[in-house]
Amino acid sequence: MFLYGSRVTFYSFELNLQTNGKVPLMTEQKATNVTWHEHKVSLAEREKIKGHKGAVLWFTGLSACGKSTIANEVDYLLNQRGIHTIVLDGDNIRMGLNKNLGFSAEDRAENIRRIGEVAKLFATSGTIVGTAFISPYKADRDKVRAILAPGEYVEIYVNASLETCEKRDPKGLYKKARAGELKNFTGIDDPYEAPEKPELVLDSDNKGIAELAQEVVAYLEKNGYLKA
């Protein structure tokens, strides 16, 4: 059973003068002349048309653990079944919406905050959203969970060891980080806080993409996401 509520948080941005105005700082909304507008079409009505629940599948893990590849395979499998889906990929988002953000702790937090809000918009349209982001900090992931209704956030930990990820290293990022050419790289000189109680853990060390994607679909089926 899913209970969907409405949680609204407003934000504004200020420029950090200590960094030449390049880092957006999040503060509480100061304007008093804004009003949240409820939609005439309810989430339940949107889900009825689509024939399934809206949800955010939050894939998290080290770089090269397989997040994007698995998310895309799940997207494909669900699409073949007529499920309304979309994938928000870390690299793709940084080429557009978040192109002004770097990889400092502050920028990472803002990166995840923005994605969480975008994912929420899709989920409240009855769409199943796959998000593939390292999202290394537990606090940032917890904030995304908090803005979604109970049952909407599905944290999926793509568990692959640092050794495995370094061996894969399709972009050569670990090599650059080890050489000191990349700073604040997760797993090397920046921490990754593994989920403590994720909804699903995928063993990316020992299983292939197809098998892991099927595990995600099986979880969605078992927990009632694929029917309205």
From TrEMBL:
Task: Give the pathway annotation.
Answer: Sulfur metabolism; hydrogen sulfide biosynthesis; sulfite from sulfate: step 2/3
What does UniProt give as GO cellular component?
cytoplasm
Active site per database record: S135
Which molecular function GO terms apply here?
A: adenylylsulfate kinase activity; ATP binding; sulfate adenylyltransferase (ATP) activity
Kindly state which keywords UniProt assigns to this record, in alphabetical order: ATP-binding, Kinase, Nucleotide-binding, Phosphoprotein, Transferase
Task: List ligand-binding residues for ATP.
Answer: G61, L62, S63, A64, C65, G66, K67, S68
Q: Does the keyword ATP-binding apply?
A: yes
Entry superkingdom: Bacteria
Keyword Kinase present in the record's keywords: the answer is: yes
User: What InterPro entries does the annotation carry?
Assistant: APS, APS_kinase_dom, P-loop_NTPase, Sulf_AdTrans/APS_kinase
Name any one Pfam family assigned in the record: APS_kinase
Question: What EC number(s) would the UniProt record show?
Answer: 2.7.1.25
* Chain's role: Catalyzes the synthesis of activated sulfate.
Q: Which NCBIfam families match?
A: apsK (TIGR00455), PRK03846.1 (NF003013)
Stated name of the protein? Adenylyl-sulfate kinase
Origin organism of this chain? Planctopirus ephydatiae
